[in-house]
Amino acid sequence: AGGGPFGPRISPHFDTENRQRWGSLFDQLDTNQDGRVDINELREGLGAWTGDPRGQGDTDHDGQLDFEEFARYLQDRERKLLLMFHSLDRNHDGHIDVTEIQQTFHRLGVYISLQQAEKILHSIDKDGTMTIDWNEWRDHFILNPLENMEEVLHYWKHSTVLDIGECLTVPDEFSEKEKKTGMWWKQLIAGAMAGAVSRTGTAPLDRLKVFMQVHASKTNSMNVWGGLQGMVQEGGIRSLWRGNGINVLKIAPESAIKFMAYEQIKRAIRGQQETLRVQERFVAGSLAGATAQTIIYPMEVLKTRLTLRKTGQYSGVADCARKILRKEGVRAFYKGYFPNILGIIPYAGIDLAVYETLKNTWLQKHSKKNTADPGILVLLACGTMSSTCGQIASYPLALVRTRMQAQATIEGGPQPTMLALFRHILSREGPLGLYRGITPNFMKVIPAVSISYVVYENMKQVLGVTSR
Known about the structure:
Elements: H1 12-29, E1 36-37, H2 39-46, H3 54-57, E2 65-66, H4 67-88, E3 95-96, H5 98-107, H6 114-124, E4 132-133, H7 134-141, H8 150-156, H9 176-181, H10 183-201, H11 203-215, H12 224-235, H13 244-249, H14 251-270, H15 278-308, H16 317-328, H17 337-366, H18 376-405, H19 418-429, H20 438-443, H21 445-463
Antiparallel strand pairs: 1-2, 3-4
């Protein structure tokens, strides 16, 4: 079947038909009519379009596309689009209807209403039949960088890369492809490195938060500046990083345990189905978080004790562990465990709920646009807002946990239970007493998110992690 510029695989009829259609599109983009399309003409002709066929179609690497290169690129593109079309056309009738759009999103774990699915359909359906045929699908997506519907999940995947120093987040989802190619462990390493740099960068504010949770009260009116000055006077500038070593050290075991537990629980809930619904993610994530916390909790207690230590009190992590074991016994390593586990529920629940709400709001508003990519600023803002809301909800439990962990460091202090401590704080300081130290906690959110994102992206490049 025929020669011509498109190779032997294309029949003369198909060749002629496509040459006319592609030629018309080429002429629209080639505004100066020089027979080549350069990057400026692409940008001008495609407006908000975010892809660039030059990288894939420009075979002679001259920075421009001639018609033959342009046609080869479109031929390959149409082949991919046809596979996508068949995967959406569940009943194989040659048309995609509104329920098939909705079912596809549901299979990917994105729950859209019938109205939202209709909006997406209307944006592609040109002849008003309330279905999408192959021609409409092809013409709509031919110059759009959307490779498959899973890009919606790729962009909106709730990623643990946003390390704000909390250990209660729901683990990240990895696709089967990422697991088979080994990308999942590279992403976990990149995430751990991002967390380590982020926590080290914001360690002074984290130490101040713990100090204020334990020592601030109505009587001493400790504030951010006064607290930082007090710590520097007691132990010098280096003392601002006390407790950071163990805080960084616990990232790797916690991430690994949480990931393995999450995968097992996910399999128990859904069997071989890949994607969990939001409610199932909450259950699986909470149980995985509780498993990881149970195993590494002694490190949490050590972190609090090392953060609050006075100069010369402990020579290091091992010395701190020995002294706690000798003076207080094994039970001391699980002080505050119960409020910590309880804190996972409001944190993970509100974090996921807020993120899903923001995600679906964005998708609903922008479903007529031909891209699933909301842009990095939108993603970071959604992740930061959802994590912050989760923190606010679980903060009173985190404060009580820290005080229980630190009880032995308060000389002559009582050893109350969780409920007794709640009653004590409320009677002495009112509801605001449960939020001591939240100011430095909020202050570290934006720098922590920014640092972890930048380090994560750079580590992905170093490790050779592909975007999708």
